[in-house]
Amino acid sequence: MSYSVGQVSAFAGVTVRTLHHYDKAGLLSPSGRSHAGYRLYSDTDLARLQQILFYRELGFSLDEIAGILRDPQANALEYLQSRQRQLSEEIARLQQLAEVAQRAIEVQQTGVSLSPQERFEVFGEITFDLSYATQAELKWAHSEGQREAMARAAAHTKEDWRQLMGEATAWRAELLAAFGEGEPSDGERAMDLAEEHRLHISRWFTSCPPDMHRRIADDFIADPRAFALVVPPSQQCPGLAAYTCKAVHANAARHAGGRTESQEDR
User: Fold this and answer.
1) By the 8 A CB rule, do 206 and 148 touch?
2) Model confidence over 42-91: pLDDT tens digits?
3) CA-to-CA distance for 140 and 261, rounded, in angstroms?
4) CA–CA gap between residue 175 and residue 244 (Å, rounded)
5) HSE of 227 in the Cβ direction (CA atoms, 13 Å)?
6) Nearest CA to 22 among 35, 8, 36, 34?
7) Strand, coil or helix: what is 51?
8) Is the pTM here over 0.85, yes or no?
9) Which of 6, 42, 63, 212 could form a disulfide with 31 if both were Cys (CB 3.0 to 4.6 A apart)?
10) Separation of alpha carbons 53 and 55, rounded Å
11) 41 has which bridge partners?
């Protein structure tokens, strides 16, 4: 039995233009023509079209599909296994993004919404880069500390944010002063500032033992967006991110030297 291009388009769910394109590309040429020169597709052609649509649904390119159909026994399994791995990785990535979106929804649903004026009053020049926030969520997706930090941040009131940002502003002024006065990054003053920063994280977001604090500080050098959450770009100067990271590492080493965390630390 033969079918016109219009009939095939209707029951296969593809456009006539797509069928013409498949024909032109040599992927699916109809077996016959009518007396008037119109394309006519056989049952064998429809079976081939079904294969093409199956592979297209899986995300294969037309060139890849052509390669599979030229020698299906030799190529199909290898192509399918490769695509299965890609799809599994993509599913995992999308699942993580869905979890990030869910946490963002939970934050929005707390009712702690700030007007542009209030946001500037509370955060000043500190801005939260959403691309960095998403990457950080993915990076620390399986971290209990990250989940706790997000939950506690979502529960903060406007007054909480004002207080914690006030503390951060005062700390930042001390950091800039120490750096500007040439205090060594492994000196007492710099290490005390690093300790204040660690306790600030523990107090407002999540328990931050020295080893975790080191990992956070490493991001100050690896990603400028991370350090911008601590010191806005307008207040930064060359070497400040590295100085802060070294102070954190020195403070962590001081803890490792025998000092244990107090109840306040926790």
Assistant:
1) yes
2) 999 999 999 999 989 888 889 889 888 887 666 677 888 888 888 888 88
3) 24
4) 8
5) 21
6) 8
7) helix
8) no
9) 42
10) 5
11) 3
